[in-house]
Amino acid sequence: MEICHTAAELSERLAAYRKVAFVPTMGNLHRGHLSLMQIARERADGVVASIFVNRLQFGPNEDFDRYPRTIEQDRAGLEAEGVNVLFAPDEQEMYPTPQVYRVQPPPLATELEGAFRPGFFDGVCTVVLKLFNLVQPDIAVFGKKDRQQLKIVRGMAQQFNMPIQIVAAETVRADDGLALSSRNGYLTADERREAPRLYRTLRWIADGIAAGRTDYANLEVAGRAELARHGWNVDYIAVRHGLGLRIPHPEGFDHPNLLIVLGAAKLGATRLIDNVDVVPKHNED
């Protein structure tokens, strides 16, 4: 595996590949990230991963400074998965001057995650657009755990006419259901035992809808209450239509196959997010 720190090095290395698949990350890689590399490997002869902790998507009171940087461990994992090129720029390379030009994402970016993390998707879209321009991939792989991000990035690629196929990858979970996340490392031992409740709560709501319930607001309230009873500070539990993450029709006219249940909540000092399809669909979005 070759490691590039500059755009010039990256461009030179990528000239050797006929078809390029790209997986952008912020590092501190786990099995979930590595599964994205496997999907990329199946679709292209050149696989590029990036590691860049993007300051633009962190709020003033978020964990930018303490976000785990584990470059040597990450490098070994990527090499084992057959990644061809690791792009690991520093901030000066990505933002040589203050980034005064920003991508303005759609109104969806102010809902769900965006309502609790103002400016988050502006930062995500801006850095992803820059990375797409630098890598110029044919394919980019994003995990479904960050479902709203996946929807917004896909929409950005479509509306800016980028010749990039956005591939959705299934959420990878621990044996107890907890979605793998770099931030799981912040959990204490007691919190780690409690953490799978978020997934179980979302799955309970999804199963209720699959069985015929259409009282979505009641299910959301019950889900929030269940988490709150066990010490969680809930940001949102939401049932949404899968195509555009809009609020489903209150009379239940939307087919359950198209619905998603999303949630975000803090357990202690750690904020966890997750989502489930009402009817599981492998690698579809």
Short account of what is shown:
This protein is of the alpha/beta class and 285 residues long. Helix content is 36%, strand content 19%. It is globular and about 55 Å long.
Question: How are the SSEs placed, and which strands pair?
Answer:
Layout: E1 2-4, H1 7-14, E2 20-25, H2 31-43, E3 46-51, H3 71-80, E4 85-87, H4 91-94, H5 113-116, H6 120-135, E5 139-143, H7 147-159, E6 165-169, H8 189-194, H9 197-210, H10 216-229, E7 232-241, E8 259-267, E9 270-277
Parallel strand pairs: 1-4, 2-3, 2-5, 3-4, 5-6
Antiparallel strand pairs: 7-8, 8-9
Helix pairs in contact: 6-7, 9-10
Describe the overall structure.
There is one protein chain. The chain has helices spanning 7-14, 31-43, 71-80, 91-94, 113-116, 120-135, 147-159, 189-194, 197-210, 216-229; strands at residues 2-4, 20-25, 46-51, 85-87, 139-143, 165-169, 232-241, 259-267, 270-277. The protein has 285 residues and is of the alpha/beta class. It has 2 domains: 2-169, HUPs (Rossmann fold), CATH 3.40.50.620; 182-277, Pantoate--beta-alanine Ligase, Chain: A,domain 2, CATH 3.30.1300. Strand 5, helix 7 and strand 6 (165-169) form a beta-alpha-beta unit. Helix 6 packs across helix 7.
